[in-house]
Amino acid sequence: MTANPDLSNLLVRGGKIFGGPAPAAPEWCEAVLVREGKVTAVGGSDELRSEAGEIREVDLDGALLLPGLCDAHMHMASGGASIGKVVLAGLDLTGVQQALREAATDWRKGETSWNKTCDWIEATNWEPARCRLEASVLDQITSERPLLVFSRDRHSCCCNSAALKLTGITADTPDPPGGAIGRSSGSRPNGLLYENAIGLVVAALPESDTATWRRFILEAQEYLLSLGLTAVSEVLTSGTETVFRDLDRSGELILDIDGWLRIENWSTGEPPPPDGDRFHLRTIKLLLDGAFGSGTAALEQPFTDSPDSNGMLLYSDEELIELVLPAVKASWRLALHSIGDRAVAQACRILARLPRVDSAPHRIEHVQLLPEEGIQSLVRSGATASVQPVHLIDDQPWLPLRIGAERCRRSFVWRSLLDAGVTVALGSDWPIASADPLLNLHAAINRCGFNQEPQPDFDLAEALPPYDAVRAATHGWAAAAGGQGHRGSIVPGQTADFTAVAGVSEDLRDWSGAEVTMTFCQGKAVFQK
Question: What angle do CA 374, 380, 384 make, to 5 degrees?
């Protein structure tokens, strides 16, 4: 395969091209002609070569060419920051303790590559369903330095006693609104923090400066391009908007970024700012509940394994309307994090009452457990369903114990929403889950990971057909982000963002042997295997 990485005028041929307008089934073609970063024609190789005249050619070497793959929900800057940190995914208590001891040893030697100047030791992706942590457990790892372990869903964390002391959390510290401090007998904090209580310890962490965020974002971008991603929806961290805009102006931002502002960082009354070339900011995000892993997803009925808890719903309906209505009137669209059935029902109720905005529909993020009448509620809300199939891979082993088999049948519902006319967009929630879009597609189509079998507690009928899954990973992002007029399909007039993939099965069902061979953004080959 040959290509000039600086070329945006080219003829891409020699493979199988997933063409045609979305959301229809693909119109297969042999070649696509690109000029000045835009698709100008699709069709046969000989026909387009004759039309193109003198132009560079890219030989796909039999690969499948898709519209540029997208990720509808991630934390890109935080993902870049997580590269090199301690990752505890899949580990039991023994494994967690060993990994943390190694990290503490490396810190003492000055070998913590992720931040050699930081007094804190951090770890991510701890899975509470696999092992329980408390401050007393972490104190055995290190008592000399603050140690902070984030759960995989980042809706809870565990601190050692040094971290609790540094942040000033004592038995007299009240639970913050929308959060909870885990306590042992006598109200003594046990090191566990839930939802908004996490902010008490995060506020004490050393802040990353602009140069550090710039490095994290560029490292994340390089990684995501190698996975075949061309566009992502990014939940902005405080301080990163300026970095994204600077990278956009300097031409270093290659990915198409749909930025989201957290509601607490919005200046009330301010409308969305003008778009950049590859950076756009038109969405405000807020949480309605927590997550299953931390036991804070808001449920209509109690957790099966914790019958005294329904999770946490963070707002009443009227509080939520009062909070978001000014933003909607200022032309912001909303992205509402809703995981449990009680939170999804609330999101549907609220969005059905709110005015629409011109740029794109409002969105419900995750939609992991539908209420009984959830499909019709989502239709009435007019919202996009932004879902993460990779979470199904991670949650299948333990979720039935937490919510029971009956509710599992109502979880991770995708096909029924699509059939009802709801726009479905695929994301990953990286770094909470894998950012690999090929794994995400495989999970959407097969309800399991590579070389796995789907679990019977989860409705296999809710899998997406292969063509629809590809559309949800391409046009779904464009529709959700307000970009369907310029991306999401391989048709004339659209931006020439493509992903070339080799090794996928002929029927596009099995992605376990697939690999990305090239990634194109605005007609330029920005990654080549």
Answer: 80
Place of tokens 């994340």: 220
pTM, two decimals, is: 0.88
Tell me which residue of 29, 35, 38 sits closest to 52, measured CA to CA. Answer: 35
Q: Which helix (H) or strand (E) holds 363?
A: strand 363-366
SS3 state at 338: strand
Decide: 77 and 234 in contact? Cβ < 8 Å. yes
434 contact partners, CB below 8 Å, separation of at least 6: 390, 428, 440
pLDDT in the model for residue 112: 46
Query: pLDDT at position 105, please?
Result: 83
* Residue 486 token pair: 């310029």
Q: Is the peptide bond before 466 cis (omega within 30 degrees of 0)?
A: no
Do 476 and 424 touch, CB atoms closer than 8 A?
yes
What is the number of other CB atoms lying within 10 angstroms of the CB of residue 185? 6
How far apart are alpha carbons 497 and 518 in whole angstroms? 11
Place of tokens 């046990």: 190
Q: Are 501 and 63 in contact (CB under 8 A)?
A: yes
Q: DSSP state, 270?
A: P
Please name each of the domains of the chain with its CATH number. Answer: 1-68+488-529 (2.30.40.10), 81-202 (3.10.310.70), 209-481 (3.20.20.140)
State the DSSP code for 26. P
Model confidence pLDDT, tens digit, residues 490-504:
999 999 999 999 999
Identify whether the C-beta of residue 500 lies closer than 8 Å to the C-beta of residue 17.
no
Structure tokens at 177: 């609104």
